[in-house]
Each structure stands twice: as C-alpha cells, then as structure tokens.
Automatic annotation (TrEMBL):
InterPro entries: Ac/SucOrn_transaminase_bac, AcOrn/SuccOrn_fam, Aminotrans_3, Aminotrans_3_PPA_site, Class-III_PLP-dep_AT, PyrdxlP-dep_Trfase, PyrdxlP-dep_Trfase_major, PyrdxlP-dep_Trfase_small. The modification N6-(pyridoxal phosphate)lysine is found at K252. It is an enzyme of class 2 (transferase). The lineage of its organism: Bacteria, Pseudomonadati, Pseudomonadota, Betaproteobacteria, Neisseriales. It comes from the Bacteria. It comes from Pseudogulbenkiania subflava DSM 22618. Its EC number is 2.6.1.11. Belongs to the class-III pyridoxal-phosphate-dependent aminotransferase family. ArgD subfamily. GO terms for molecular function: diaminobutyrate-2-oxoglutarate transaminase activity; identical protein binding; N2-acetyl-L-ornithine:2-oxoglutarate 5-aminotransferase activity; pyridoxal phosphate binding. May also have succinyldiaminopimelate aminotransferase activity, thus carrying out the corresponding step in lysine biosynthesis. The gene is argD. Coiled coil: none annotated. This is Acetylornithine aminotransferase.
Length: 404
C-alpha cells in the first residue's frame, strides 16, 4: 500500500461531510504550521479553539510522553491517578464539587442535558423535562445535542426530533421570561456564542437567567466548550461574568489538542448520575487526563490569563487598523482570544472568501457562519506572530478588495 497521500486522497476515501482546505499540515510548533511542501503558516484557528497552548507545547509533550510510558487505558471499571488529579484540580479552581470526564464537547453536553433531566425527574417528577436553549447556539452533533442547538441546518434530515426543546432569542431577557415555566428542567447558554457568530452574552442577561432558573427550580447550564480553559481571559468565562451555573460543560481547549471533555457540577446535582446511569469507555483515560491536567496547570497561571487579556487588545487594535484601511468589518467583537470580525453589508455571506484569501497568504483563520471571520489562536501566541499574522490578513483582505 502506498503511503503517499494528497488532498485528492480525501475525496477518494473519506466520507464527504467535510471540505478541508487544499493544503495538508504535517508539522506544528507554537503558532506556526508547515504543510507537505514545507510552506509555513501562522495559525489563528487553533484547531477551532482546541490548541489552547499552540502546537507541540513542550510541557504537554512531556506530560503525554511520561504518561504514555506508564499507562494508556483502563476503562471506568477502574479509576486512575491522572483522572483523579485532574478532577481534584478542576474542583479547586471552579464552583464544582464533582466532575464527569468524557471525550468531547458533544459528549459533555449530552451528559449535561441527561443529568439535568434526570435531576428534574428525581426531584420534581417526569413532567419537568423541557430544555430552553438559544437561537443560533451550537452544542454538538449527537441527535440530542444538535437539536438542543439552535441552528436547524444541523438537525435537518435526522428526525424525528427529540421533544421538549425550545429556542429563544439570545441575550433577550423577555424571551426567556416568556418561555420558562415550572416544566423547564434546564436553561442552556453559551457565555459567548461561538459557532453562532462570536457574540458575547450581556451580564444582565446571564444574571436574569440565573434568577429565573432559581424561581422555577430549573438548572442553569453553561456550555463552555469553546469559551472555557482561559479562552476568554479567566479560567472559565462564567468567572468573568460573576454568574455561577449549576452545570458547566468543558472540552476543546481542555486537552490542548488531545480529545477530552468534562462536565462540572455540584455534589447535590451529581447524585442523580448514580452507578449505571451514564458512562463512557474512554472517558477519563490516563493519557487524556495527564495532558488535560498539565493544560489546566499552565493556563491557570496568572501570567497566562493576564496575557490572554493583553493579546486580545493587541488583536483588536490591529484588526481595527486593518478595517480603517478597507472597511470590510461592521465590528470586531468577542472576549479574550475568541474574536469575531463581523463582515460589512457589502461582504455579507462571504466569510469563506476571507478564509480562502487568508490561506493564500499562509494564514489559518476560521469562520462562524456566513458573515463572521473568527480567530481562536493559541493563548500563548507570541506578539511577533500576532503582528505577522495580522500583516498577512491585511494582504489577504487587500487582494480580496482589489478583486471586487
């Protein structure tokens, strides 16, 4: 069998649910990536907010290598030291008293929603099962989570849809007031809508959600799969807002590139997931837990979190300077190093054109829908990489504008 593969190989052997860019990365270091031909790229995509410490961070490589020479997998018939150490650290640094470890953001949200319904059934009866989510939200790709998500394009064709899910306008206190009732078991909110356009929540909105959940004996779930682990300038975004959820889902940046997910919750709520009610074969395996433990250790260092906030300002200043030249953005928004550039009306629907133009300038960026260019770089991206990456974005936008 030949080992030579190209982008064309993807179209020959892979299920066509993705449409990757034309180059194949083969090596990464920090915020730089090299393709098969040796071309160097600057990475402002971060694996969709996953590579929280960039590529091949030496402390993560060391943690993975050390654990790889000890113990890879046991299953949850047994526990293991790295999983217990990770869970202990997460409870020390957050509101949580209990942790469930899994493998991805979708799995974390699936567990969170199941826990919310089980808790409601245990305490209030089977009629309290309704979940309120937000329009344009995204919570994963399982049948359950894709329907809790507020983007119908992702759930179409996979029906019948699960019952008991309502979607309301994001950041609308009145819409939430109208929708919530004593049948509501949970309200789920992203502190910053990621896939929905990098749109931060208003503090008053999250405060109102907390109060309404209290009034109706509903649980408040924060989906921090994308916003967590330092991405927004605090370990978790809820800490920036001063609003504490009952359940929090975490993944993406938690493993720094290694697949891992978690839900954080209180002891009282966790009791509803008793022995046998939920599980995962790989969740909490020693390899993932060792890497995630090191990620949490590094990201929670004050200089890293302070750096995220400083780098946010550097990005926004640079992006606004670019926009002053080309007038392609309505606004630049976001928190920390989750940044969205909302396209001006004359470029509406063309976010992927910006991604392709950036690719030609050897810059990796993301989109968030049709109208937002999204940046989610390493939390420790060097200033020189920020500046050079923004220069490449400037060149990409210049070429796009001149081609109009």
């Amino acid at each position: 069998m030949s080992n030579a593969v190209t982008r064309a190989t993807f179209d020959q052997v892979m299920v066509p649910n993705y449409s990757p860019v034309e180059f194949i990365p083969v090596k990464g270091l920090g915020s730089r990536v090299w393709d098969q031909q040796g071309n160097e790229y600057i990475d402002f995509a971060g694996g969709i907010a996953v590579n929280s410490l960039g590529h091949c961070h030496p402390e993560l490589v060391a943690a993975l290598t050390e654990q790889g020479n000890k113990l890879w997998h046991l299953s949850n018939v047994f526990t293991n030291e790295p999983a217990l150490q990770l869970a202990t650290r997460l409870t020390e640094l957050t509101f949580a008293e209990r942790v469930f470890l899994c493998n991805s953001g979708a799995e974390a949200n699936e567990a969170a929603f199941k826990l919310a319904r089980k808790y409601a059934t245990d305490h209030f009866g089977a009629d309290k099962y309704e979940i309120i989510s937000c329009k344009n939200s995204f919570h994963g790709r399982t049948v359950f989570t894709v329907n809790v998500g507020g983007q119908p394009k992702y759930s179409e064709g996979f029906g019948p849809n699960p019952a008991g899910i309502t979607h309301v306008e994001y950041n609308s206190i009145e819409a939430l007031k109208e929708a919530i009732s004593d049948k509501t078991c949970a309200v789920v909110i992203e502190p910053v809508q990621g896939e929905g356009g990098v749109l931060p929540a208003d503090k008053a909105y999250l405060e109102a959600a907390r109060e309404l959940c209290n009034q109706h004996n509903a649980l408040l779930i924060f989906d921090e799969v994308q916003t967590g682990v330092g991405r927004c300038g605090t370990l978790y975004a809820y800490q920036s807002y001063g609003v504490t959820p009952d359940i929090l889902s975490s993944a993406k940046g938690l493993g720094g590139g290694f697949p891992v997910g978690a839900i954080l919750t209180t002891s009282a709520i966790a009791k509803s997931l008793g022995v046998g009610t939920h599980g995962t074969t790989y969740g909490g395996n020693p390899l993932a837990s060792a890497v995630a433990g090191k990620v949490i250790e590094i990201v929670s260092r004050p200089e890293v979190l302070e750096g995220v906030r400083a780098k946010h300002d550097r990005f926004v200043t640079g992006l606004n300077a670019i926009n002053a030249k080309y007038h392609v953005f309505k606004t630049v928004r976001g928190m920390g190093l989750l940044i969205g550039c909302v396209l001006a009306d004359e470029y509406a629907g063309r976010a992927k054109d910006f991604l392709k133009a950036a690719e030609k300038e050897r810059l990796m960026v993301l989109v968030a829908g049709l109208n937002v260019v999204r940046l989610a770089p390493s939390l420790v991206v060097e200033d020189k990489d920020i500046d050079e990456g923004l220069a490449r974005l400037d060149a990409a936008i210049a070429s796009l504008v001149s081609a109009r």
